[in-house]
Amino acid sequence: MFSKLIFLLIVPAVFGINLQVSYQQGPCQSANVSTMPFFEMDRFLGEWVEHYRSLLLDDQDDCGKNYYSAFNGTFYNLTETKTNIATGRNTSSAFSVRLAEPLSNPVYGKLLVNNEYGMYYVPLTDYTRYAFVQACEAVNSTHYVLHLWLLGRPGANININEFFIGGTDLLRPTIQDDRCIGIFPNTNTTTVSPTTPDGASAIMVPSVLALLILKAFQMFV
Ligand SMILES: *[C@@H]1O[C@H](CO)[C@@H](O)[C@H](O)[C@H]1NC(C)=O
Ligand SMILES: *[C@@H]1O[C@H](CO)[C@@H](O)[C@H](O)[C@H]1NC(C)=O
Ligand SMILES: *[C@@H]1O[C@H](CO)[C@@H](O)[C@H](O)[C@H]1NC(C)=O
Ligand SMILES: *[C@@H]1O[C@H](CO)[C@@H](O)[C@H](O)[C@H]1NC(C)=O
Ligand SMILES: *[C@@H]1O[C@H](CO)[C@@H](O)[C@H](O)[C@H]1NC(C)=O
Ligand SMILES: *[C@@H]1O[C@H](CO)[C@@H](O)[C@H](O)[C@H]1NC(C)=O
């Protein structure tokens, strides 16, 4: 609690992230993916709507939604739904999630997910409006690529210009309009409390757009 407050006070009120312009050489283990300290999984639960996704290896799907819910003390369920509007293909996938390092101090936003990525990194979220999620994909035996998603809570007005993202041309806004309604039943089974459990962060978090400067990734030129 005390260390959290100190952390919030010393970091500049800016969020920066440089997107990689190409594939990176090496295994995913060599990717330095920034993750949020003092990550609170309970506040991360609930429904997230996809606003932006990486273009590299884009599968052309839209209407993306993620639903996180608690399963037991250790495991969480994640349901991801999306639709390819052009082909009409609807995809719903259920995954099991747990904190990668639940006992670290502080706990970082690193989630083990039993999908093709294996790990989701949360570089930043305010829990109530937006969340950034990254995943590393090994494109072949020698190269990897980092994906980025910008998610928002349902109804949240997210403007990508709130954030300092280098390489936004590598992201595309995804469709979230009437074409998405009714394709999937609402799988939102988690009650998300809008109140923050911590007085310090309740004061600090809404007052700044973002809290971290992420270590910039090496640009591949
Ligand atoms: C990741 O961080 C380590 C330690 O700071 C550094 O040695 C390494 O070069 C970094 N890797 C990349 C790809 O930036
Ligand atoms: C939670 O569920 C997982 C997966 O079914 C299981 O391996 C684990 O033992 C459970 N943990 C608790 C605390 O019940
Ligand atoms: C939730 O996750 C647990 C543990 O992995 C799994 O046993 C269960 O089937 C999942 N529930 C749903 C609805 O996907
Ligand atoms: C892996 O992919 C990169 C980027 O497309 C390419 O430059 C490299 O030659 C590939 N390596 C192998 C072993 O296929
Ligand atoms: C996807 O869902 C929509 C809305 O329910 C439905 O009209 C469409 O047929 C579905 N597509 C497929 C391939 O089942
Ligand atoms: C999800 O559940 C929460 C808590 O019950 C509720 O406030 C929210 O409106 C629900 N979202 C949707 C899309 O139904």
UniProtKB/TrEMBL annotation:
<keyword id="KW-0732">Signal</keyword>
<protein>
    <submittedName>
        <fullName>CLUMA_CG017407, isoform A</fullName>
    </submittedName>
</protein>
<dbReference type="InterPro" id="IPR012674">
    <property type="entry name" value="Calycin"/>
</dbReference>
<feature type="signal peptide">
    <location>
        <begin position="1"/>
        <end position="16"/>
    </location>
</feature>
